[in-house]
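In keeping with the milestone schedule agreed at the kick-off meeting, the structural modelling team has produced records for the first pair of proteins. Each record is given below as a sequence line and a structure-token line. The laboratory manager (R.T.) confirmed that both were archived under the project's standard naming scheme.
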Amino acid sequence: MKKQTTTTSNNRIVYLNHDETTEPIKVIHDFFTHSRLPNHLKMLKRWRNDAAFESQESKKCSPEFLVYNYELTLKLIEAAWLLKKHKLGKLNFDNKQEIDIAKCYIKTEKKKLQNYPKNLTTREIVKPSVVLKKMFRIYKLDGYKKILNIWLHDALSTSFMEESLSKSEVIKVYEQLIKLFEATWLISERIKDDN
């Protein structure tokens, strides 16, 4: 009986309501309704700095701002968890010979869309849902929740918690979140254009 309880509690969806769980793509659209991609990336960097780096200056993020963005980010991560097996926002360029055509399309798309991703590879731009799969190979849903919970507490703390997370853990999660934000932004834009 204990094994079943442990299994069902892992990677549980907590922040999404029933409607968001049944249509997680709405969570992605909502995420970018709250703020534009550059603002989300700026917030993420400030949050990371407040959580991971000792500074004589006061923290950059207010507690209300941090908690609000913590919950938004967790909702996005839970939606990504639910969507990780779906091929969303994919461009129809699969063959290696078509890579030049894909690059040409991407160049055109960059001109059309503001705030185009800067941290995704060509393959990730062509298939942004690949980012969702990759990120959950590094940590499962619960792993991201635990780490972001530590980030939240460290950023809210008035003293620096040097041994809380290793620098490599912070960098790894930060890089994955940047890619998640950019990939979901692309998915959101491409799906919005399809409708």
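The second protein of the pair:
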Amino acid sequence: MKRKLPCILATACLAVLLPSQAAAAVTLVATDDNYVYTGDEDMNYQYDSPVFTVKNATSNDRIAYVKFDLSSVISSIDTNQDATLNLTFNQVTNAGSGDTAEFTFDALSNVSPNNEDWLETTVTYNTRPTGTYINLGSNYDWSYNASNVSHSITFSNIADYIQTDNTITIKVFGPQLGDTGNNPSFHSKDSPTEAYHPTLVLAQVPEPAAASLLLGVSVLTLIGLRRRRQ
């Protein structure tokens, strides 16, 4: 008489052979970063500089943009997940005692953007990426004499910011400082210190092949048990 393998045993086998898997993190370094200048709207500035300048002045603002290309990982990530932006503040030149500043970080929405395919080598104020920018909800407060300070911003639902070319653009701006000679800056992707490079950290979806392999092993194990019981 043949005996059937109990369902509970099959369930137990699958539970043992299919452990939970944590999604692996992937870190993307910025592909482009530069600032644009309202004092010369057709000029492309220091795209290969180790820093980019951010300055809210009474006139002639400097507005920075940082771009990340997700093309290499777009097929292996959940585009509704959170992401963490990492930037490192450089310094404020000519800062005076007691100077403070708050910098804001906004992401370009993928709804009706313009010039979203900008490049650091050609971007100007007149060709800067424009459209609806959404504040990422975490600002950086600088205080006098602080330098090389890292700052991380975690924001949700990156699908809202991924452009048709699989890029995400971040705008960095700041308040007006009292001394017009003040020049705040952040480290760029061309900084000689790798730890200072702007990065975007995402979580990758676990490879389905691993789960399929474990399921195959489970099935073979069950078949072997059934044959021994016959």
